[in-house]
Amino acid sequence: MSGLSDASRLKATVFVGGLDQAVSQQTLFQAFLPFGDIVEVNLPKPDLPNSNDTHRGFGYVEFEMASDAADAIDNMDRSELFGQVIKVAAAKPQKDHTEGLGSKTAVWEQEGWLAKHAVSEEDRQATEQQKEEDDGPMDPMQGLEGLDEAGPKAA
User: Fold this and answer.
1) Cα 153 to Cα 15: distance, rounded to the nearest angstrom
2) Which of 88, 106, 129, 149 is 20 to 30 A from 120 in CA distance terms?
3) Is 57 left (phi over 0), alpha (psi -120 to 50) or beta?
4) For the segment 13-41, what is each residue's pLDDT rounded down to a tens digit?
5) Domain boundaries 6-90, corresponding CATH code
C-alpha cells in the first residue's frame, strides 16, 4: 500500500456497471489497462453465497493515477463489453461498511452523478425531440379550432 490518502485513491478509481456474468477480474483488467497502470480490480461477489452469479454486475477499477481514471471514464462509458453496454463513472466514497460497495442503493446513486455531469449529445437531442413531441399534439388541435370558427361564418 502506498501512502495515498483514501480520497486520492478514490479519485483514481472508476465504477463499472452493467457487466455480463462472463466478465471476470481479468477481463476488466485487460479492458481498462490501455488507460494506465491498474492497482486493483474489484468485482463484489453476490450477496447470496449459493448464487450462480459470479459477481453482482458491477465492479471497481483502481488506477495508479487519477488522470488515467478520467480517461477510462471518457472512453469506456457506454462502450460494449461482452455485448453489454457498460456504465463507467467516478467511484463514490464509501460512507461506512453498511453502505457503499456492499449495498445495492449506493450503486444507483451513480445515475444521479451521470445525470449531473454527463449530458451527451444524444441525451440533448433526445430531450429536444421530447419537447417537440410534447408540443406536437397541440398544433393540429389549434388548427381545427380555427376551422370550426371559420366554417359557420362562411356558410
Assistant:
1) 67
2) 106
3) left
4) 999 999 999 999 999 999 999 999 999 99
5) 3.30.70.330
